[in-house]
Amino acid sequence: MNPLTPSGPWSANATEEFLVSTVIPMRLAIITLSGEPVVASHWFLYDKGLLWCATKEGSLVDRCLASTPKCGFEISPDAPPYHGVRGRGIATRTPDHDLALLRRLHDRYLGEDETRFRNWLLGRDDGEIAVSIQPTRLMSWDYSKRMGEC
């Protein structure tokens, strides 16, 4: 894990394990060009201290992160007992010319089977952006004890 120490009930190792093993969308908070907040869900993966997601070149998310790379994020299941990781970070955008990140994300969430959707997703030639987020603040929370067997 990166040298950033998360706050909350989980250790750095528990936080990292959650980020590596959890396969649900990340909620990404960005600031629009007009200064308004927006939240968008993205497939994500955690690798060597960075959160990674992908977006289309020129999309709202891409344009907003190009203008204001500061962002917020949350990864937590929708069902009780509620728990997860949230934080803030700095996003860096780079072209995903060979679609390596998009392929990893697809395979993580949907598997490696050759489906029509996978072929369509990876067969497009209209620009994909890899977004890496360097967390500047991480916080875990876990209401499992408080909520009991919900």
How large, in whole angstroms, is the Cα Rg? 16 Å
CATH homologous superfamily label:
Electron Transport, Fmn-binding Protein, Chain A
Please state roughly what percent of the residues sit in beta strands, choosing from under 5%, 5-15%, 15-25%, 25-35%, 35-45% or over 45%: 35-45%
Order of helices and strands: HEEEEHEEHHEH
Tally the structural domains. Answer: 1
Helices and strands: which structural class?
A: alpha+beta
Strand order of the largest sheet: 2-1-5-6-7-4-3
Average pLDDT confidence is: 92
* Number of separate helices: 5
Report the CATH architecture.
Roll
Contiguous low-pLDDT stretches (5 residues minimum) are none
Using the alpha-carbon principal axes, give the shape.
globular
CATH class: Mainly Beta
| Largest sheet, strands/sense/barrel | 7 strands, antiparallel
Strands, count:
7
CATH topology: Pnp Oxidase, Chain A
- Straight-line N-to-C gap: 31 Å
Q: Helicity range of the residues?
A: 25-40%
Tell me what the structure shows:
- With 150 residues, the chain is an alpha+beta fold.
- The protein has one domain (12-143): Electron Transport, Fmn-binding Protein, Chain A (Pnp Oxidase, Chain A).
- Helix content is 27%, strand content 37%.
- The protein is built from five helices and seven strands; from the N terminus they run αββββαββααβα.
- A seven-stranded antiparallel beta sheet has the order 2-1-5-6-7-4-3, with helices on both faces.
- The mean pLDDT is 92.
